[in-house]
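User: I'm preparing a small set of examples for a lab meeting where we compare how different chains pack in three dimensions. I only have the primary sequence for this one, and I'd like the structure in token form so I can line it up with the others. Please keep the answer compact; I'll paste it straight into my notes.
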Amino acid sequence: MVTSTSPRLARDTGIPLYLQVRDGVRELIAVQGLQPGDPLPGELELQERFGVSRATVRQALSELSREGRIERHQGRGTFVAIPRLARSLPDLTSFSEHLAQQGLRSASRLLAFDRLAPDEWSVPAVAQDEDGMGRFFGAIPLVRFVRLRLANGTPIGLHVTATPALVADEIGLTPDALGTEGFAFYGALESHGHRLSWAEEHLLARAASLREAALLEVPDRTAVMSVLRLSRDEAGTLVEAVRAVYLGDKYDYVVQLERRPAAAMAE
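Assistant: Understood. Below is the structure token output for the 267-residue chain.
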């Protein structure tokens, strides 16, 4: 709970109270040094703090939410918003590396871990490979794992990753390893000779599924960015296929474009 003396609102200036409460919450965040993902006081506490109605508090919070300063999660409360994460292409970085560059803490929650034989994901048993990873690797055993990705404790993405079972065994990829603080999938790959060289990404904007929305703690049909990444090592071997789903308002893909001179026309 955040405590301090109750601020005085100017009720005779013509400035709407909800805007004054909005500014008061901004000041609270700054003075208390609250970081992205930190909780804010509840509506009742803010109502008492500013001496206004709950409707006024809700209007102020709605303004802050539209500005991208706070996030409201049903059943959890109100939090300082995670800033939009700019990913500059063609940089090939992991989720953890990317968040570290933004000054944010990364964490993961393992949701599933499976070993799949070729006949478990190939046609006609395609239902076992609902994310369509198998088609990129050919007829080899795979390890598939699903992680909820968090920034400063707030869910912002969902990763479904597949890698050859031989590679997984070589780098010690197990549910226990994935649950160990400090374990990095890319780091484990590179420390065992699979230095990542390049990847291709496919981006698609869509609405979150019911399951995705529930895991990301957002309303149904929230806009998300679906990203398919296929990563290869220096030998050209495909070592990772990952289908990532990110909250649409949290990622900003930045691509530098260059206009090349047109070929000289023959006279």
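A couple of notes for your slides: Strands lie at 70-73, 77-80, 85-89, 106-116, 142-151, 154-164, 196-207, 223-233, 238-247, 251-255. Residues 17-80 form a domain with the Arc Repressor Mutant, subunit A fold (CATH 1.10.10.10).

User: Perfect, thanks.
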